[in-house]
Specification:
By secondary structure, this protein is an alpha+beta fold. The chain has two domains: about 60 residues, no CATH class; about 80 residues, Sandwich (Immunoglobulin-like). It is about 25% helix and about 40% strand. The protein is built from three helices and nine strands, in the order αββαβββββββα. A four-stranded antiparallel β-sheet has the order 3-4-9-8, with no helix packed on it.
Amino acid sequence: MSYFEDIFRDMELFHKKLTERMFKEMEEIERQVRSGELEGEWDVKPIERPGVKGYVARGRFWSRETPEISKRALEEVHEPLTDVFEEKESINLYVELPGVEKEDIQLNITEGKAEIKAKNFYKLVDLPTRDVDSEKASADYKNGVLKATIPKIKKTVEDEKKQKIKIE
């Protein structure tokens, strides 16, 4: 047997084992969905046509059995994921706060920084500019994501002249 025949034989064997394992896993998921062990929005359909065999699975699954999570991990302060986008007139801040109620969120904006506190989440974010109008900032919270819009302060030519420092 040639080198290439060995490679293709090994690949075929690997593919066969992978396919068998995938089908066993999908059959188990289908069984758990039908028995009620897995709950959620689901749709599992087997595909069996000449030359084609597989599954189409759509939805979100969750189990009645919750994984063991240590109390320390639940109580620990986490840094939320954030995105900051600078637009022409404002700065948009997006903060992921899963499982947090709107009433538990505190957002403070001071001199080029945004501070987010919510249950076990904390983050201090450097904004791209210090020239923001925190009094006109707005925020909303939907589907676990806090979106804050922070207007920029428009500088006039006179303001820019005031900031120049003469060097002697």
